[in-house]
Amino acid sequence: MSRRALDDLPTGAPLIDGMPALFRDDEMLMGMLEGFDEVLAPIHAVVRDLDAYFDPALCPTDFLEWLATWLGVELNARWPLQRRRELLRRAVEVHRMRGTAWGVSNAVELYTGTEPEVTENGAAAGSAAPGGDLPGQRQLGLSVTVTTNDSRIDPEVVDRIVAATKPAHVPHTVSVVVR
Fold this sequence. Notes:
The chain is mainly alpha-helical. Among the domains are: 24-52; 99-179, GMP Synthetase, Chain A, domain 3, CATH 3.30.300. It contains six helices and three strands, in the order αααααββαβ. It has helices at residues 27-48, 50-53, 64-71, 81-96, 101-112, 155-165; strands at 117-120, 142-148, 172-178. Strands 1-2-3 form a three-stranded mixed beta sheet, covered by helices on one side. The chain starts with 26 loop residues before the first helix and ends with a strand. The relative contact order is 0.10.
């Protein structure tokens, strides 16, 4: 549905209903109010259904891109409509897990449609022996590899997604391998 004027769109609140009975006999006033009702009907329709505009499954197709900017998600116009809606539906869940390998993996998977290989080289464990070597490497790093059949996947977009979802202080590398 578009938010532009639609022919014969009924209004949920005709202006004449708020006028005293005395004015209902004035044809010129009635005509003006009907004209205003016609102009205001699309606004009433949007306000009445406002909650649907914030549900990716229900919002108008042309509203998806704007909703994506609210959620900090990058949509690809070439994707099927259902894939774009699914990405927006899961955006809050993925955002909640930002900074974790799971969050990076799921964000990249939503964009590419393929589960990436995410490798971290740090660790969150201690040494069993006092003064022993710490696990992991001194230099933190994150490596994300996407193996796919889709040559349209843009490595720069994958890199931006990884940069946005990984911990800010961890350097990363991204590679997209097309079979």
